[in-house]
User: Fold these one by one.
Assistant:
Number 1:
Amino acid sequence: AQTVTQSQPEMSVQEAETVTLSCTYDTSENNYYLFWYKQPPSRQMILVIRQEAYKQQNATENRFSVNFQKAAKSFSLKISDSQLGDTAMYFCAFLRGGSQGNLIFGKGTKLSVKP
Amino acid sequence: DAGVIQSPRHEVTEMGQEVTLRCKPISGHNSLFWYRQTMMRGLELLIYFNNNVPIDDSGMPEDRFSAKMPNASFSTLKIQPSEPRDSAVYFCASSYDSGTQHFGDGTRLSIL
């Protein structure tokens, strides 16, 4: 069974600084997808970024980028130039490839951006 | 484009009552998922459908929970009878073959 571990329950960062959120996962699959979702206090689940396991290039979306280390089964999220609106819970999630299966979520990291 | 639409946004009811949560997936998506979020257990899958057919309902807690998807544009999650431990946020999500799941705004359910 797949598992996703986020070892940082809470983090804080100063506005405009850079922060990295950690995620590790365990799977025997070779084909899969990884995601970061953001959940602000409004409780919406918002897709931040997606990575296909077969791609060596790390995904980027504006100020958000990932460091995907397939051999180490590590998938960290870097947020550059942090903004107050980045304050939220961040969930790392795993999806087995080749099927329309369900997401396996980590427990989340609560990020606070301080002015 | 309209996203996943869930109703109601909030529901407060007394123990023993029937609760029905509703979801309209994104048009064209062929998979629909119901997740539950609690402080203790985090986000966990209850059930998912592919092409309106239930594929995995192993996360449904017990017989009090049931889900249906009568057509491609509508699904319900029903709890009967409801219990205080069912209090949680319930999310519906939908996806197409790309695998990326898009979530509704969730229903916050409180059972008194």
Number 2:
Amino acid sequence: DAGITQSPRHKVTETGTPVTLRCHQTENHRYMYWYRQDPGHGLRLIHYSYGVKDTDKGEVSDGYSVSRSKTEDFLLTLESATSSQTSVYFCANADRETGELFFGEGSRLTVL
Amino acid sequence: GQSLEQPSEVTAVEGAIVQINCTYQTSGFYGLSWYQQHDGGAPTFLSYNALDGLEETGRFSSFLSRSDSYGYLLLQELQMKDSASYFCAALKAAGNKLTFGGGTRVLVKP
């Protein structure tokens, strides 16, 4: 358990509105990640961070931005939500390069 | 690009053995992980193979062949609680990034 808390856990919003999902860790793990999970696509990496203010794009980063101003918080922002961004979003962290990620409980986002 | 292929669904009875294969095409490949996810839950880590060979952890074992770009997860003495989705994931050295396969849904019947 790497003490990850995601908020909000559920959100319904309308197309065109901004949305921010928050990921908070109680451990000082170096790496943090945002994934989205959709039926038939498994987990796809949106953005990740390898340190404070150090972030990089994943395979499905269009329409998303992230920020990591503190070790413990990793924010995912949808500047203008679209229906295609309806998904379950998982935050994860890792402290070592061993292929072991610790996942939060997920945030279910519905964009109408 | 990167891709991982695994079967979409497997059905077996309690007490049986199931093998979930995973083939990958990944540049900068570092190792292969396996995760379990129950419906409505978060993925949880099962195993990681960086070297060729078999890693055993209780009823679950994982195998990797780097020369064949292939790995598998072996579930033994299946129990009802093993009904879940299982994902293989390739680790890239740069950035400690994991790319996931589409998942294999395992259904265990009495």
